[in-house]
Write a structure and sequence with these properties.
This is Gluconate 2-dehydrogenase subunit 3 family protein. This protein has two domains: 34 residues; 113 residues, no CATH class. The chain has six helices and no strands. The two termini are 37 Å apart. With 180 residues, it is mainly alpha-helical. Helix content is 59%, strand content 0%. Helix 3 crosses helix 6. The longest helix is centred in the first third of the chain and has 27 residues.
Length: 180
């Protein structure tokens, strides 16, 4: 069986890439740079219960899924609720009852609370069912600013921030975006 040079190049690139990945997987844990998933963020909520906070963070990731955005940024976006519920009893009630309803449906279908359902697809089905609710719309709307207005997240998307004060994008590599 004959192999074309294009297929060989693809294999070479694959082997080179997988070799580098294997080195990375072997070296990173040894130097302690990788944290377990449970330690991905250490957000503690004072006014929101642990269950509500955990569910809202999981919801945030399911509503706006980005593999390269760590959980700590989703938790930071949800952390604003922890402050707001101190002055807004209606908001606290909405979040508590919305999470309770979401968990009840998850338990009915999958035998687990929403945040403990392992499959993203299963959780997204649950979100589609509540998509028109005031609870879902509130969380989704607040996440747009809470997540995407965080300047620490911008580099993960290749966005360098405002450019007008630096003379605009025209002479600053406006077309160097590599993730699109």
């Amino acid at each position: 069986m004959s192999v074309t040079s294009k297929e060989q190049l693809g294999r070479r690139a694959f082997l080179k890439g997988s070799g580098l990945a294997a080195v990375g997987v072997a070296v990173l844990p040894a130097v302690g740079l990788m944290a377990p998933a449970e330690q991905a963020y250490a957000q503690k909520f004072e006014r929101l219960s642990e269950s509500v906070g955990k569910t809202l963070v999981k919801m945030a990731r399911d509503i706006f899924p980005h593999d390269k955005v760590p959980d700590k940024f989703y938790a930071a976006a949800i952390a604003s609720y922890d402050q707001k519920v101190a002055q807004d009893a209606q908001l606290k009630s909405m979040l508590d009852s919305g999470v309770a309803q979401l968990n009840a449906e998850a338990i009915r279908r999958y035998g687990k609370a929403y945040a403990d359902v392992p499959g993203e697809g299963e959780r997204v089905v649950l979100l589609y069912e509540i998509e028109q609710s005031a609870f879902f719309q509130k969380v989704r709307g607040d996440l747009i600013f809470g997540l995407y207005n965080n300047k620490e997240v911008w580099p993960l998307f290749g966005y360098e921030g405002s450019s007008w004060e630096k003379g605009g994008y025209l002479e600053r590599g406006f077309n160097d975006i590599d993730w699109l």
